[in-house]
Description:
Layout: E1 5-10, H1 16-27, E2 30-33, H2 34-47, H3 55-62, E3 67-72, E4 77-82, E5 85-86, H4 94-104, H5 107-120, E6 126-130, H6 133-137, E7 143-148, H7 151-165, H8 171-187, E8 200-203, H9 209-226
Parallel strand pairs: 1-6, 1-7, 2-6, 7-8
Antiparallel strand pairs: 3-4, 4-5
Helix pairs in contact: 1-9, 2-4, 2-5, 4-8, 7-8
This protein binds 2'-deoxycytidine-5'-monophosphate (DC).
Amino acid sequence: MKKIIVTIDGWSSCGKSTLARQLARELNYVYVDSGAMYRAITLYFLRNHIDWTDEREVHKALGEIHLDFHFNEKTQSSEMYLNDENVEYVIRDLVIAEKVSDVAAIREVREFAVAQQQKLGKKKGIVMDGRDIGTVVFPDAEMKIFMTADNAVRVERRFKELYEKNPNVTIEEVKNNLEMRDYIDSHREVSPLRKADDAVVLDNTKLTEDEQFKLALGWIHDRKKAGK
Length: 228
Ligand code: DC
């Protein structure tokens, strides 16, 4: 059957990557976590003390950044590489989460990331998650999903995830970070987070991972059958 593009956008910590990864595995598609690219760029900026309010510094720094995804057979998922270094783990830190929305709001950073994302989707057969995938990166995607969930549920989920890595993290910190990122991501000037008009909303507040997976997979199969 013809391969399609599946886009998954939505608020922070809605479980977009979990769903995207499961769908890609089931469909035998490539999974791309576009947020990881913005996180890796943020890591580079922080490590190299780049003043990202200075356009020339940003331009120069982007010229020194090479991003790549490599599939890890052991974990069965693709991992983010920044200039040939595996940064998949370090980019999940709260230190990165605190700055990434500011970096992702910079026009040149977005142009840099979007160009690479579009290249990755050229052959279709891809599931990509992020904030502007259905609206800007692949506006003609065959299947667009917009994910949402109650704030308290999202905070709880993200807290559990971060607490496993760092028991010093507090629920208050996680809550503030989520609210701040949602605000910046949806209010920025360049490609703000919004639902594409033709996206299907998936509210997973009361759904298990398995239920949401089956629901989304059903939508994709219907879309593929309809040949849309
Ligand atoms: O999905 P995530 O939490 O890993 O994304 C990290 C940040 O990157 C998020 O706060 C917003 C930004 N982002 C974006 O602006 N556009 C995307 N397509 C993906 C992520």
